[in-house]
């Protein structure tokens, strides 16, 4: 327990400060303050003593030095139960400070929209505030620390109930919050300054990874009911243009749920995958997702046709799926959706009112509206401007990579076989290759034009993925194009493709048995293009 006799108040955000200060005074607490905070308190008839009077030293350097003084930090850091500390405090005239109420200069608000100059930003880097928070948090057994106005009511209630004393549990909780607050603040500064480094495509990944995220909501559970789950919004890089506020929702954080029960952990993963894939294409597109993998993707002149063709790829797997669209859902598309079997979620940039009326007839269908921009698949990077990171957790840490933003168009692809693909076949290959980028490895995508007819997902051998995709395609494989996200290690995958009637293949190449693979394509009269680049997805 800590008895609060003296408190230091120095805040940038003055929300709720005056009532809190009045409450402290009623409890017999002496108040110290600085600059604008002291001015506000006096205007509200709150008795307050200037820190300059307390230290006997004036504010210096345009306010850069106000609380950086031994009498302030000595009064905060002294252990009340340590005889030497107490003796030194008496020797040097230190007066104990029992409660520190500080929030920091608005650095993030100043630089968020990108309009601030570097000098503006530097002047909003708080020095004295974090130092006091850290001092008080370090000495939490003797000092209370408050860094959020939302805590004022709880602290006053505890002091009132404790007759001027704060309980140990609350002191510890407030200290943890203060360290988290200063860590976030310093991370924001580091991220902003790193973002001003010259852009470089080959810039090294950071030695120390700083990621910022704010909880948007708790979820009913994680992947399974025995796991806890929550959704966090990642904070975009500071100083970006167009202006983006730290808490302005982007990506999935910006979605608006229009119908259905609460979204689950798994729903969010699938919605991200569905919407990101649909956004890859300029034509109206539907992407049907199960367990973050596409089971049907199609582009067509109308959204309804795109959905119907995507659904036809694998109707069995589409049961209970998540669907992403890159266009506003109209009534015709909604009728087709209502006529289909059970669907979990829909994600689209908009819905016609008549379409929503139809879709809401499906009681258990979750309907969300998402911004029309592609869903970010990575987290902000402090390695340099314009970069994003893909971060995955592993036992004992995480692995980090750049986002897979490689070009998926066929212009640089190399012909490896005697037979050249036709224009229609090249179109099928380009579509299949783009879809393969979103399929878990080993990935095989069979496509006709701009629609998938078979997708092989995540098998432990490439020939098994090819067999699965071709089995789902059936007779539709004849004359179709096939994309493989990695090279064929043996000719067997090409052989099963030839037997099914595949006419063109695109794959990275690079196997030690490329010559055998290409020869198998030639024997099957298959055109083969090599991208020189793979799209593994784990």
Topology (SSEs and partners):
Blueprint: E1 2-3, E2 6-11, H1 17-26, E3 30-33, H2 35-43, E4 49-50, H3 51-55, H4 70-77, H5 83-91, E5 99-103, H6 107-111, H7 118-123, H8 128-138, E6 144-146, H9 152-161, E7 165-166, H10 168-195, E8 213-219, E9 229-234, E10 256-259, H11 265-278, E11 285-290, E12 293-299, H12 303-313, H13 315-318, E13 321-325, H14 331-339, E14 343-348, H15 353-359, E15 366-369, E16 379-380, E17 388-394, E18 397-402, E19 414-415, H16 423-436, E20 444-448, E21 451-456, H17 462-473, E22 481-484, H18 492-500, E23 504-507, H19 514-523, E24 527-530
Parallel strand pairs: 2-3, 2-5, 3-4, 5-6, 13-14, 14-15, 22-23, 23-24
Antiparallel strand pairs: 1-7, 8-9, 10-15, 11-12, 11-13, 16-17, 17-18, 19-24, 20-21, 20-22
């Amino acid at each position: 327990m800590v008895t609060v006799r003296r408190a230091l108040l120095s805040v940038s955000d003055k929300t709720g400060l005056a009532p809190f200060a009045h409450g402290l005074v009623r409890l017999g607490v002496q108040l110290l303050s600085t600059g604008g905070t002291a001015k506000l308190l006096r205007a509200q008839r709150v008795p307050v003593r200037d820190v300059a009077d307390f230290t006997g030293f004036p504010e210096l350097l345009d306010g850069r030095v106000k609380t950086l003084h031994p009498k302030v930090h000595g009064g905060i850091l002294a252990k009340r139960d340590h005889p030497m500390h107490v003796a030194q405090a008496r020797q040097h005239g230190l007066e104990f400070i029992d409660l520190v109420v500080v929030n920091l200069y608005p650095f993030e608000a100043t630089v968020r929209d990108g309009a601030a100059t570097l000098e503006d930003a530097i002047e909003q880097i708080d020095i004295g505030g974090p130092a006091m928070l850290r001092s008080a948090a370090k000495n939490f057994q003797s000092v209370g620390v408050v860094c959020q106005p939302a805590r004022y009511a709880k602290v006053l209630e505890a002091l009132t109930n404790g007759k001027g004393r704060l309980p140990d549990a609350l002191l510890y909780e407030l200290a943890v919050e203060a360290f988290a607050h200063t860590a976030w603040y310093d991370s924001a500064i580091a991220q902003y300054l790193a973002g001003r480094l010259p852009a470089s495509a080959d810039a090294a990944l950071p030695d120390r990874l700083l990621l910022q995220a704010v909880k948007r909501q708790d979820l009913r559970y994680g992947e399974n009911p025995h796991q806890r789950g929550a959704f966090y919004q990642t904070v975009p890089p500071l100083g970006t243009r167009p202006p983006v506020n730290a808490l302005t929702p982007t990506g999935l954080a910006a979605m608006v749920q229009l119908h259905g029960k609460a979204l689950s952990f798994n729903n969010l993963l699938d919605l991200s995958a569905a919407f990101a894939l649909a956004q890859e294409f300029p034509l109206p597109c539907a992407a049907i997702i199960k367990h973050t993998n596409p089971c049907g993707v199609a582009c067509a002149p109308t959204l309804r046709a795109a959905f119907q063709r995507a659904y036809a790829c694998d109707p069995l797997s589409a049961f209970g799926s998540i669907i992403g669209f890159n266009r506003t859902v109209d009534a015709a598309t909604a009728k087709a959706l209502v006529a289909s079997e059970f669907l979990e979620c829909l994600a689209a940039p908009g819905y016609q009112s008549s379409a929503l009326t139809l879709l809401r007839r499906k009681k258990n269908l979750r309907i969300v509206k998402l911004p029309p921009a592609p869903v970010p698949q990575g987290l902000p990077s402090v390695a340099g401007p314009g970069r994003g990171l893909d971060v995955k957790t592993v036992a004992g840490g995480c692995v980090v990579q750049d986002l897979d933003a490689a070009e998926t168009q066929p212009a640089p692809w190399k012909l490896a076989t005697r037979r050249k693909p036709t224009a229609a076949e090249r179109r099928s290959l380009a579509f299949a290759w783009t879809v393969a980028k979103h399929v878990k490895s080993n990935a095989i995508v069979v496509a006709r034009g701009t629609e998938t007819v078979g997708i092989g997902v995540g098998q432990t051998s490439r020939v098994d993925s090819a067999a699965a995709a071709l089995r789902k395609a059936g007779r539709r494989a004849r004359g179709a194009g096939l994309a493989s996200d990695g090279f064929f290690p043996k000719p067997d995958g090409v052989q099963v493709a030839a037997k099914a009637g595949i006419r063109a293949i695109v794959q990275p190449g690079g196997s030690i048995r490329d010559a055998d693979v290409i020869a198998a394509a030639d024997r099957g009269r298959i055109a083969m293009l090599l991208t020189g680049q793979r799209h593994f997805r784990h």
